[in-house]
Every structure is written in C-alpha cells, then in structure tokens.
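Our collaborator T.R. sent over the components below with a one-line note: 'Predict the complex.' Nothing else. No constraints on interfaces, no templates requested, no preferences about which chain binds where. So this is a plain run: every listed entity goes in together, and whatever single assembly comes back becomes the starting point for the next discussion.
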Amino acid sequence: MSGSRLEVTLRSRRGIPLDARFTVGPGELLALVGPSGSGKTTVLRTIAGLHRPQEGVIRCNGETWLETAARVDLRPQQRRVGLVFQDYALFPHLTAEENLTLAMDAGSRAHRLRRARELLSRVRLDGLGGRLPRDLSGGQQQRVAVARALARDPRALLLDEPFSAVDMMTRERLQRELAVLRQTIDIPVVLVTHDLQEAAALADRICVLNEGVSLQSGTPEALFREPASPRVARLLGRQNVFSGTVVSNGDLGTLQWGELTLEVAGPVTLPPGTRVQWYIPDSDIVLHRRGRPSLGERENPVSGRVEEAVVMGAQTSVTLRCHHSGDSLRLSVSTHAARRNQLEPGADASVSLLSKGIHLMAASGGGSGVVPGDA
Amino acid sequence: MDWTAFRLSLELATWTTLILLPVGVVVGRWLAYNRFRGRGFIEAAVALPLVLPPTVLGYYLLVSFSSDMPLGGLWFAATGQGLNFSFAGIVLASIIFNLPFAIQPVQRAFETVPIHLREAAWCSGLSGWRTFLKVELPLVWPGMISAFVLTFVHTIGEFGVVLMVGGAIEGETKTVAIAIYDRVQAFDDEAAGAMSLLLLVASFIAIGLVYGLAGKGRAVGVR
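Returned assembly:
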C-alpha cells in the first residue's frame, strides 16, 4: 500500500515563501492548519499543479508529479488529483450530473452518467443531478464539488476550506458526512482549514504551517499536548505557556517557576539550569474544591485570584492570576463547578498542575530551530 | 432606394464581422487573462477608434494605404491593385475602426469567468482547448454575440472613414450611409428618408438583441 502515499517537499524563497515537508498515507487525512496567509492554500495548489515552487518533490501513488531537480513538473491534467475549491468552482452552466461527467475521461456516455448518479447518491444528492448549481443550496453545492473531485478517480483528494462558506448547522452535517465518506476511500486526503476544532475532529494528523513553513505534524492529541515550540502552541490557540528553569532532570524532574518548584513527569533530559518555556493543557489543571480536600491537591498546587470568569454554555473559561508570579493561568471548568466554588472575579482559588501534563520546550523565543516533525 | 448600396453595405459588414470575430476572441481573451507591462497601452490602442474623429482615422488609413507606403505597397505587390478607393480597402478600414466593438465585449465576458473555474476544469482533466470549448465558451457567448452584432451594425452605419478611404464609387465603395448623404445632397428626401428608416429599425433591433442577451448572460452567468 506504500504506493498510494503522498509525499510532499517544497521550498521557495522568492514569491510566496515555502518550506514544507509532509507525507500522507493511503486513507489518511492530514489537516494543514495555520493562520490566514500561512501558505496552506499555496501548498494545496502546488500539489494540484496550479502553483510552481522554486524547489520541490511531490510523489503520489508511485508517480513523480514534481521533481524540480529532474525538471519534472506534470500539468494539473496529468496529476489525477481531486480538488475541492473553497468557493466550489462548479461550472455554472452545467447541471450537477454534467459537472461530474465532464470530469470523467473514460467510458461511454451512458457509463459516465451511471457513475455520476452513483457518486451523487454517495453524497446524498439523489434526484438532484439535473439541477444547475444556482438551484442548489450551499451545502448541496459543496457535495457536488466533493463528488466531482472523486469523479476523476483521483490518487489524492485535496480540500481547500470546504466548510467555510456554509452556515454552522450545515457545516457540522457536512463534516460528519466527510468523516463517513473518507472511510470508504483509500487515497491520501489533505484538508486545508484555519478551524482547529474542525482539524482536530476530522484529521488523523495535523500539520501546522506558518509563513509557508511546516513547523510540526502529528496526531491532534500529540500536538495539543506537546507542541514543539511556543510558536506552535500559540498557533494552536494554546494559552498556558510560561517561562521557567530546569532544576533537576530524570524521570521525575523539577522546574522553577518564579518562587514555585514544580514536579515534571519525565523523562526530563535538559540539563539543570536550562531556561525553558513550558506549557500545560487546561485539561491538566485541576481546580481545588473550596473548603474540602480534593484529589491530588498536593500535586503542584498554585493559588491565585480569579481575574475573569466567562460563562460559555456548559463550560466557564476562568483566568487565574497566580499570587507567586503574576502569570495568568487559563482553565476551563464546568459551569456548575464554577458556581459551586464561587469562581467570580476577585475570588481566591487554587489549582493543581498535573505533573504529567507539563511539557517543556526550548526557550527559543519564536520557536525557530525546531525540527519539523513528521510522524 | 439604392439597393446596390445596401447590398454593398451588407457584404462589407459580413466580411468585417467574419474576420474580426476570431480576432476579438483571441485578443479579448488574451487581454482578460494576462497581466503584463504595456497592457494598458494595448487596451488604449484598441479603444482609440472610439474617440478618434473618423476623418483623422480615415486620413491616416488613406496615407498608409497608398502604394508607396509599406502596407499599401505590400497589397499592391500581392494583388496588383491599390487599397485606396477599393472594396478591399474599406474592409480593412472597417476592421480597424471596429476593433473596440469586436474586442471589448469579448474581453469583458472573459473577465467574468473566474480563474477558479478554469483551474477546476484543469484539475478535472480537461485540456486547455477542452476547457475553452466546454467551460469558457458557453459562459462568454453572450459577449461574443454582442461583439458580432455591434460590429455588424456599426459597419453598416459607418460614414466618415469609409468616405475618406473609399470615396463613393457606385458598386465598389458607396455604402448605404454614403448613399443617404448623396440623396440628401440631391434633394431626394424620399429616398434618403426610406433608407434612414430602414437603418434606424435595423439598428434598433440589433441593439435590442444585444441588451436582451446581456440580460440572459447575467441570468446564466457566474455567481
């Protein structure tokens, strides 16, 4: 099955800067995430053959689509990719069925029509094949675009922000449908999105891109728990990033954070005295119950004053300013727990930072010099 | 009613339109899809006949059609005839003064076809030529019909340039517009009136067609 892998290595210094490297396995979904202008769409267009980088290699299904050193650069028509554009780019003068049959290059007219109907049925558009795009809703247009991308029997499926142009309700439904659909296809899928929740929900792996550079890739769980650098943590919307100094290393290391010494479940390999940035996911910050002993409250206890408590439905986002350092810890607690513990602005509260959640990163400032991981 | 002049005008308009339509599609599409230094200059050159007095354009054409100039000399060497005061000369003049009518509507039409549609066609496996035939052409045809009709009607009605280059030779260069002027000069108001009315009605129908198609283009067009 190694044949249907998609391998991408791109580098450009002029024009739109690029320094991206990743692979996607058969049936795997990789989400390219990053802020606007981070080069996500350019990477996708480069895979499709719509943008040419200065240097690069793209291989898919055992074929070389691009190898600048060998002067290989196949045209989009020769690459067999299915690309879903952000605005879907359906041919407005053709019906849904005709949009699909135009993308099929083999078989008789009757065969192509039958396949088009099968594909439309797969994206739950039975009976709508005769409609023009303008007579379809946004969600239906998106499904036609996905079906058209599959019509060519592609070796890789590329999705450019495919859910950004529909309302929230439709988006959730389409995301569920994509999750189901991808179980039936065994080609690499690359999804470009700026929505981290969408990436975490749909992707097997996430690749974080910033200014054209792929900073880290890994499973959503690994990325959200162990970002490679403070910059990746910031790009992933992680907030609890602080500075500290390694006190001792080993299986159970210790870390100086202001006046506090924190235990870190290792292995910590950095030598004592190393300045680091460290991060803790808010799932590993445990609120102490007021007036009652709490489980694990001796583990890295931190006290502070509630600066902000914002109710967001069932969850409340709490900002705690630590007494010892003045740093702000962000945590999310269930709203009823927030009420029971009277977490209101100005109130004192204490939490435990679970030692297994503390993740150390080289204190490089911007996170440069971090090797782009590729699991 | 000068039917010879009418027939000549129709022939002139047909030749001009048939020659200009492919030129309009190629140049209009090229200007719509390419950004390059000097593009504004080329667009200005294409639009020049719209603002230039017909006599000025006619004068320069008259000069360059003369047999001692490169263009006129080349034509003379090839055919043994001069361009000035000939049917071929007024066809060539019509082609030049109709450039904006043939190119601009087609260019505007191609500009409304988003680049994503062409890219989607390429990613769907369509060659450049099939993309043109299957995706671009069906979306730009109202613009092409506009160009066709405007060129045709404008050629039938053109007066100044044709008179400068062709004179008013019966059956060779005397078009209906010149015939109307001729009849007015001869105080033959009846003939001038009849021919004018015919041109008025034909022009109105043609323009109605163009506007009707433009509306249809908006309805079918790209979202």
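Summary for T.R.: Chain A touches chain B through 27 residues (CB under 8 Å).
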